[in-house]
Design brief:
By secondary structure, the protein is of the alpha+beta class. It is built from six helices and 15 strands. A hairpin with a 4-residue loop joins β14 and β15. The radius of gyration is 18 Å and the shape is globular. It starts with 5 loop residues before the first strand and ends in a 28-residue tail after the last helix.
């Protein structure tokens, strides 16, 4: 299966953003976020694919970075209500290149941000994650900063290095995902592209692999939108009251991720 451009972002109070192969879908997102996505400049130049999208923790908080089909890349950040310290840090980085920026937020106003090889995070991120950020393991010593970080509920987290090496502690909050990650560790050639934990609802997640496969555990209403878009080999799992689908990774050979 060819690699697909897929990104999903959870927001507070049932909001979400979903991008798949050039199509954009979102629900209950901040008005300023919608205006940014649908601005005349972005519509005329076209948003080709997202570098990152973050929603919350408050209703009007967001950040997004996009590659355009034409013209310069696009970046918008509005965290002045929740993270003034983060906003000040970003401003000190000088002119920001959207491709170099990654921001994620978690519960209790936790956050992680990266601008190229510089990074900043709140003091209340889990200690094990903080240790990895400050002392990267030997196998990723050529990477000063991670490619992707997700902060989940109950002290859970996930970290992905540019090399594809992944570390995580789901803190008993995402049992279905724990099983998938354990299986991925035994599969050959299965590399994670992105993994997003819902920081406000335990158990909900979205994971996409570089081979185009997807697994997610979403609210039923959200899954009704997402499922038809990624039908076929990719898998969407609904909440317990919905029908159960077969395992995405059944029948695959085993190896270390």
């Amino acid at each position: 299966m060819p690699m697909r451009d897929i990104l999903f972002a959870f927001g507070p109070n049932g909001s979400y953003f979903f991008f798949c192969d050039g199509e954009i879908y979102f629900q209950v997102t901040p008005p300023t976020f919608r205006q940014a996505v649908k601005s005349p400049n972005n519509i005329s130049r076209g948003l080709r694919r997202p570098y990152h999208v973050t929603l919350g923790p408050l209703r009007y908080d967001y950040s997004l970075g996009f590659k355009r089909y034409e013209g310069p890349d696009f970046l918008a950040v509005d965290f002045r209500r929740s993270f003034p310290e983060l906003v000040n840090w970003l401003q000190l980085r000088g002119p920001l290149i959207p491709e170099d920026v990654f921001i994620t937020v978690g519960p209790n106003h936790s956050f992680y941000a990266r601008v190229k090889d510089s990074q900043k995070y709140s003091s209340n991120i889990p200690d094990a994650l903080k240790d990895l950020l400050e002392n990267p393991p030997v196998e990723v010593e050529n990477s000063l900063t991670p490619a992707h970080v997700s902060l989940g509920s109950g002290g859970s987290w996930f970290l992905l290095w540019p090399s594809g090496e992944a570390h995580w502690d789901l803190a008993g909050q995402y049992n279905r995902l724990q099983g998938i990650l354990a299986r991925l560790q035994r599969l050959r050639g299965k590399t994670i592209q992105r993994l997003t934990l819902n920081p406000w609802v335990a158990g909900e997640y979205f994971i996409s692999l570089e081979d185009g496969n997807v697994s997610c555990y979403l609210p039923e209403e959200c899954a009704r939108i997402v499922k038809p878009i990624i039908m076929g080999p990719p898998l969407v799992e609904l909440h317990p009251e919905a029908a159960q689908l077969p395992s995405l990774f059944e029948g695959c050979s085993t190896s270390k991720i």
